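Weekly structure sync, notes
Attendees: PL (lead), two postdocs, one rotation student
Agenda item 3: pending single-chain targets
PL asked that the sequence for the first pending target be pasted directly into the notes so everyone works from the same version. It is reproduced below exactly as submitted, 202 residues in total.
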Amino acid sequence: MKKVIFTVLCMAVALILCVSFSSTATALAANNVNYSPEDNVIETPLPGKVTVKNLPSKNLPSVSPNSLLYSYSIRNISKQIFNLFYPLTNYATGYCNLTYSRSVAFTVDANISTSVGVSADIVQASIGSNVGVSNTVTASESVSYEIPSGYKGRIVIRYSQNYYTFTCVKRNRVTGSETTGPGSATTGAYDPYYARQLIAIS
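Predicted structure, written out during the meeting:
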């Protein structure tokens, strides 16, 4: 009986973990961006030039912070750094030489989300001017590498992106009372480079 109960509990935990992982994977898979490679990937950086161009900001929250009655700010800032990648080629099976010729550009969206009337300017002043600024990453040089026998491989661009969460604060200058709400912000891509990903074929 104990063994049956233990087995049922294990199955329930596994189901919960599976649902949790699936929800996270779906949320992070926006914009055709992968937050982690497949299991058992052997990854090697490659030389080559990758360019980043900032795009005009749009749809950012704004309100006049020069209010006689209220002041606006953010606090409790938390930062996460994601190391992401964008596939430039499909997988090819070795042994072969796989070459990528420059022709791909992709956009990494950045955003700022606030509440209680906090503006984007306040967030950028507190965290950095790069939050909320989307950019385009361009593979600007040709790169080539060998895929050894017994592996499949592809070329990707690796890059980093910052994600921030914080508390938005609206303070009454007269009474000192505060209204708070959630906020978040992301940056565009930075530190991009080519990489080769290999997976052993069993």
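Discussion points:
- Residues 97 and 193 are 20 Å apart (CA to CA).
- Confidence is low (pLDDT under 50) at residues 1-35.
Action: rotation student to compare against the earlier draft before next sync.
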